[in-house]
Design brief:
- The chain has helices spanning 40-52, 61-64, 108-113, 126-129, 132-146, 150-168, 175-179, 182-213, 233-250, 271-274, 277-299, 316-329, 340-343; strands at residues 3-4, 6-13, 21-23, 29-33, 71-80, 83-92, 96-100, 117-120, 221-226, 261-266, 269-270, 301-302, 304-308, 333-337, 349-355, 358-361.
- It has 2 domains: 1-116 and 303-364, 3-Layer(aba) Sandwich (Rossmann fold), CATH 3.40.50.300; 132-301, Glutathione S-transferase Yfyf (Class Pi), Chain A, domain 2.
- The strands form 4 sheets. Strands 8-13-14-4-15-16 form a 6-stranded mixed β-sheet, sandwiched between helices. It has a 5-stranded antiparallel β-sheet with strand order 3-2-5-6-7.
- By secondary structure, it is of the alpha/beta class.
- 44% of the residues lie in helices and 23% in strands.
- It contains 13 helices and 16 strands.
- The protein binds adenosine-5'-triphosphate and magnesium ion.
- Magnesium ion binds at residues 40-41, 308-309.
């Protein structure tokens, strides 16, 4: 699977309630232990923010800045298979500055490639229960890291889609003008459909493996990519032409990867309606572990795994199985919990106390 990405140092200042955080995690397993509201999720969110440049809680920049601070600075020193890297991110209400080894990164893959993180957090239950957007974002997260050109295709596609939708919302949209976007939509959209389609096939296997590890194999899980576009540009163009009357009537674009889904079925029924609380959590976790596998397989490097409050709906045997499984993967692991007895289940972990926005090593 390739060598693991290991965070060697993490600093945070002025991000949510974090202040003066500087910690040196273990290359293997780490547990952040603390009571409610002390900053555990914020710490993982900060690490993941540096790696993905978005908040896993869907927060805006203004929401991430500490209530009293005009600026947040985050830093990661990373030992990646491609070498040592230093990431710095500075946020203000109006701007974001990103430095990789002291310079503005030139290509998206340079930046995202060597700080790969996969985060699981309680909001991820929406991967199973929520709208397709979150599932599309999971696909994009992997592909942005792994596939040169994917970021550019996504950007170009989104730009063309926005312009087309703006035309469709005009009082009397002109069909010819709307059709002038067919070329970029079909070209970039078909590239997105192809990439997502092959990724979905990889994810399907990895999800089944992770569920096996969690001992939740009872009902067969099906993961099906439901594209709303086509993998080749010609077929995509035909779909756009066929959809044109409908698009004019609905005043929006109905064909294309912006409407894709990754459908999840549990025992033949949509998972969102049949999965129990614990099954939902296990399924969401399995999707994140599949994300980890996919990034690892495509980038030849194993991402850091961040698990926020992972045990809250899993029973104890499954929590133990989970920790054993992730320890065996060899990825650097960060786990948060409020419960010292859960902390004790993580094999060979370095323990940190999180209190009032500060993180300190726990000496045992
Ligand atoms: N922008 C912000 N500025 C300052 N404090 C914030 C900001 N956003 C959230 N907080 C506060 O930061 C604290 C830590 O939140 P966080 O979600 O990290 O807690 P947690 O340790 O994960 O708690 P829990 O165990 O309940 O999940 C909370 O008191 C929260 O209200
Ligand atoms: Mg939390």
């Amino acid at each position: 699977m390739g060598a693991a990405v290991r965070i060697q140092e993490f600093t945070a200042q002025g991000f949510r309630n974090l202040a003066g955080v500087r910690l040196w995690p273990d290359p293997g397993a780490n547990v952040l232990l603390g009571s409610n509201g002390q900053g555990k999720t914020s710490a993982l969110e900060a690490v993941d923010y540096v790696a993905s440049l978005r908040s896993f809680r869907g927060a805006t920049r203004a929401q991430l800045l500490g209530h009293e601070s005009p600026m947040a600075t985050l830093g990661l020193r990373v030992d990646a298979p491609t070498g040592a890297r230093e990431y710095r991110v500075r946020l203000t209400r109006t701007a974001r500055e990103v430095l990789l080894d002291g310079k503005r990164p030139e290509r998206a893959v340079d930046y995202f490639g060597s700080a790969a993180c996969v985060a699981f957090q309680p909001g991820d239950l929406d991967l199973v229960r929520g709208s397709p957007e979150l599932r599309r974002r999971l696909l994009d997260r992997v592909l942005l890291r792994a596939l040169d050109g994917y970021g550019e295709a996504l950007k170009s596609y989104t730009r063309a889609l926005k312009a087309r939708n703006a035309l469709l919302r005009e009082r009397t949209p002109e069909a010819r003008a709307v059709q002038s976007y067919d070329y970029p939509l079909a070209r970039y959209g078909s590239a997105l459909t192809r990439a997502r389609g092959s990724l979905a096939a990889e994810l399907r296997e990895a999800v089944a493996r992770a569920l096996g590890a969690l001992d939740l194999t009872g009902a067969p899980v099906e993961l099906a990519y439901r594209p709303r576009g086509a993998p080749d540009a010609e077929a995509f163009t035909r779909m756009l032409a066929e959809a044109l009357p409908q698009d004019l009537a609905r005043r929006t674009s109905t064909v294309g990867p912006h409407a894709d889904d990754l459908a999840l079925a549990w025992g033949g029924k949509p998972a969102r309606v049949v999965a129990s609380q614990g099954q939902t959590r296990a399924l969401a976790l399995a999707l994140r572990l599949a994300e980890l596998h996919a990034v690892a397989a495509r980038n030849q490097c194993l991402p850091v795994l961040l698990l926020d409050d992972v045990s809250s709906e899993l029973d104890r045997p499954r929590t133990e199985r989970l920790f054993a499984y992730v320890a065996a993967l060899g990825a650097q692991l960060w786990v948060t919990t409020t419960d010292p007895s859960i902390a004790a289940l993580v094999p060979r972990a370095r323990l940190f106390q999180v209190r009032d926005g500060r993180v300190s090593p726990e000496h045992v």
